[in-house]
Specification:
It contains seven helices and two strands; from the N terminus they run H-H-H-E-E-H-H-H-H. By secondary structure, the protein is mostly helical. The chain has a domain of 113 residues. It is 47% helix and 7% strand. Helix 5 packs across helix 6. The protein has a two-stranded antiparallel sheet with strand order 1-2. The radius of gyration is 19 Å and the shape is globular.
Length: 165
């Protein structure tokens, strides 16, 4: 299964992420994963670059590949390697729902980026990180979720016509 914008849109929507903030989360995933091309999406089930903490709240994750030293201080950190993409989604939503920052409750991409920074999610400057998020917000601005119901109704209608005519 291809893990792209559409895949993560459906995954996060099914996890109950409010429609108003879905574009922020998806822009973040695109930014963190080189537009959904980073190998860690498959090898680590980790499209957002979550760091392994060993914390009991980080469920079904083990220590994965080390982060490049330039992204860390003197301590070596490692990416979290999740057992499944669902385990990643649960941890990701736990992180962006943390008090007092509650990034998931942001009403703008600027507030979302600031909340992530305040929560220690990234080390870049807010200005630079926000610039990356906005690039992907623009790239996917015209995204429309697949229209499953109209297609299903079309097939049902065709079946009825075939069966009864």
């Amino acid at each position: 299964m291809k893990r792209d914008y559409n895949f993560f849109y459906n995954l996060l929507k099914n996890k109950g992420v409010p429609a108003a903030v879905l574009p922020y989360l998806l822009a973040q995933l695109a930014h963190e994963s080189a537009n959904f091309k980073d190998a860690k999406i498959i090898t680590h089930n980790n499209p957002s670059g979550i760091v392994f903490s060993g914390n009991k709240n980080q469920k079904n994750a083990t220590k994965g590949n080390p982060l490049p030293k330039k992204e860390t201080t003197t301590t070596q950190y490692y990416y979290a390697k999740f057992n499944s993409i669902d385990d990643w989604a649960n941890d990701y939503l736990r992180i962006i729902n943390k008090a007092p920052y509650y990034a998931i409750k942001s009403d703008s991409i600027e507030k979302y980026a600031a909340a992530l920074k305040a929560g220690g999610y990234y080390q870049d400057t807010t200005e630079n990180y926000l610039k990356g998020l906005k690039i992907f917000m623009a790239k996917y601005a015209s995204f429309k979720p697949p229209a499953v119901v109209p297609i299903l109704l079309l097939f049902i209608g065709a079946f009825i016509l075939y069966k009864f005519l």
